[in-house]
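Budget justification aside, the reviewers requested a transparent look at the raw inputs and outputs of the sequence design task funded under Objective 1. We therefore reproduce one unedited record. The lines immediately below are the structure tokens for a 543-residue chain.
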């Protein structure tokens, strides 16, 4: 007779077939993109003022912050920037929730989850280098990035042309093999690099300036991660038996079939995905209004950009996975193939495509010269992260879990594609900065940017452990002469989040047995912390 095992209602099971395989990459850029926004532009004046520069855009980098500011650049000007950044990503895993522990005890597992009461931490940088496959380990403990640009204003004209190279966002890390965080990112590299940004700023009259630019960018994502499946094998066996309604004497107990089993606490799959596109186009529009010498208002709008990224994928399956599903396939016959059950193959490789929108952005702000020496900047910003409702990932061939997943959650899975639900939010943030003109040559600056997260509390995870955050910065600018200036900034970024067991459908959910999310830390309390130290400098000169 068939011996069926009831799937615990408090643990994610068969729905995990959708695996959120794709990401891990959802990142990607998702969980932290709203938070690393502007952090990798690396303009020391902007960072020192808390990125509150929409009404006080910094020279050539007005191309990004507000292209109308480019009209303020006179003559022929060059910009060289050097950024030194050190990131630390950390997570602390607590004990199992009593409800989750009760289910573990019910199944009589003889092993202990090594993730429980452990700590994950990494400060090893990884880069996604354009057009180089995979991820590149940076040889230094800090990332050093040079960028720059140039602008030209012909004497007697009211417009200035310019272009620049900058990174709207970039992040990456590598975790050790025994790090408990490897089930949501062992290696991760994310890069958006704008390599050509032709922009023009017009000085219309004494009060108004307008600007417009077109940005040509590279975008790439690359991820390597271990996947552990918690009670997934049990869910698959249960579902197969329910559908087959046939006799089998091979089901030996929880996680066991014909003497083969998979531990829910160990890696079952190693996933490697690498995708990129060399052409992602967006546009930027901006304006400045200066009705009085002491007051400026500005706004900027950056359009959405579509990214059609192509590359490769590789799924490597553990020996336990191969043995278990080969036994199921052999015992239950051709009907299992009809259902699309995994067959126990060792590896799958092929081509992958990820379609991802880079969201539009709007900012408005004021700059007030309160006294001849003191200036105060204030910005309000909005980014349309709500367009990240879900990501489409397409594979060139059917993947192991696609067949059954398409039966269980057809709204998310086909045999050759996944839709990864994200459900992010479009949020408003504020930023503020002050500048003190100490002398004709020296300006001192300080800024604060409290960053509200676009990732809801029930979507927080360990992939890029960022939620609400704060950026603090101080800096200075020094003019050697009328045609030569340096700027320097020291910044500190901190994001701390508490994810109690069962509160995030992206990491530790306990309540949805048919959830479409990958939850490798089901039932565990999680606390995360991401910190960064930024050293930014620039040299501006006339040529």
């Amino acid at each position: 007779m068939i011996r069926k095992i009831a799937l615990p209602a408090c643990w994610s099971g068969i729905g995990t077939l959708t695996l959120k395989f794709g990401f891990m990459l959802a990142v990607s850029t998702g969980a932290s993109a709203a938070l690393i926004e502007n952090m990798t532009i690396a303009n020391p004046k902007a960072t020192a003022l808390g990125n509150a520069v929409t009404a006080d855009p910094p020279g050539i980098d007005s191309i990004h912050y507000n292209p109308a500011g480019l009209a303020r650049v006179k003559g022929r000007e060059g910009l060289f920037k050097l950024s030194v950044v050190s990131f630390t990503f950390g997570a602390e895993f607590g004990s199992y929730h009593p409800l989750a522990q009760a289910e573990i005890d019910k199944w009589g597992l003889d092993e202990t989850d090594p993730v429980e009461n452990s700590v994950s931490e990494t400060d090893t940088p990884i880069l996604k280098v354009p057009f180089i496959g995979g991820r590149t380990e940076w040889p230094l403990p800090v990332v050093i990035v040079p960028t720059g640009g140039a602008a030209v204003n012909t004497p007697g004209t009211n417009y200035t042309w310019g272009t620049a190279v900058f990174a709207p966002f970039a992040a990456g890390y590598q975790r050790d093999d025994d790090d408990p965080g490897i089930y949501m990112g062992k290696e991760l590299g994310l890069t958006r690099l704008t390599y050509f940004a032709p922009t023009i700023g017009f000085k219309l009259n004494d009060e108004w300036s307008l600007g417009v630019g077109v940005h040509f960018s590279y975008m790439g994502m690359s991820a390597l991660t271990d996947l552990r499946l918690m009670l997934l094998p049990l869910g698959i066996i249960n579902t197969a038996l329910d559908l087959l309604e046939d006799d089998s004497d091979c089901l030996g107990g929880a996680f066991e079939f014909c003497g083969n089993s998979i531990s829910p606490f160990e890696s079952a799959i190693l996933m490697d995905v690498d995708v990129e596109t060399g052409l992602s186009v967006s546009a930027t529009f901006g304006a400045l209004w200066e009705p009085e010498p002491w007051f400026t208002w500005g706004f900027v709008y950056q359009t959405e950009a579509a990214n059609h990224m192509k590359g490769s994928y590789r799924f490597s399956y553990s020996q336990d996975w191969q043995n278990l599903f080969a036994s199921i396939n052999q015992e239950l016959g051709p009907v299992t193939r009809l259902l699309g059950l995994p067959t126990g193959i060792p590896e799958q490789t092929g081509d992958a495509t990820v379609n991802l929108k880079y969201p539009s952005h709007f900012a408005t702000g004021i700059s007030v010269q309160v006294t001849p020496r003191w200036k105060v900047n204030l910005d309000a910003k909005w980014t349309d992260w709500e367009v990240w409702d879900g990501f489409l990932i397409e594979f060139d061939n059917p993947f192991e879990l696609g067949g059954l997943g398409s039966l269980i959650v057809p709204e998310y899975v086909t045999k050759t594609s996944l839709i990864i639900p994200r459900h992010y939010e479009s949020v408003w943030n504020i930023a503020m900065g002050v500048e003190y003109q100490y002398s004709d040559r020296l300006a001192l600056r300080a800024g604060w940017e409290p960053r509200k997260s676009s990732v809801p509390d029930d979507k927080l995870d360990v992939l890029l452990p960022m939620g609400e955050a704060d950026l603090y910065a101080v800096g200075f600018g020094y003019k050697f002469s009328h045609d030569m200036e340096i700027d320097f900034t020291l910044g500190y970024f901190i994001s701390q989040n508490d994810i109690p067991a069962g509160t995030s459908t992206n990491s530790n959910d306990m309540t949805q047995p048919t959830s479409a999310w990958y939850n490798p830390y089901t039932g565990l309390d999680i606390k995360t912390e991401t910190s960064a130290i930024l050293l930014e400098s620039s040299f501006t000169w006339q040529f």
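The chain has eight helices and 26 strands. The helical segments are 25-36, 44-48, 62-65, 98-107, 232-244, 319-332, 334-339, 402-408. Computational costs for records of this kind are itemized in the attached budget.
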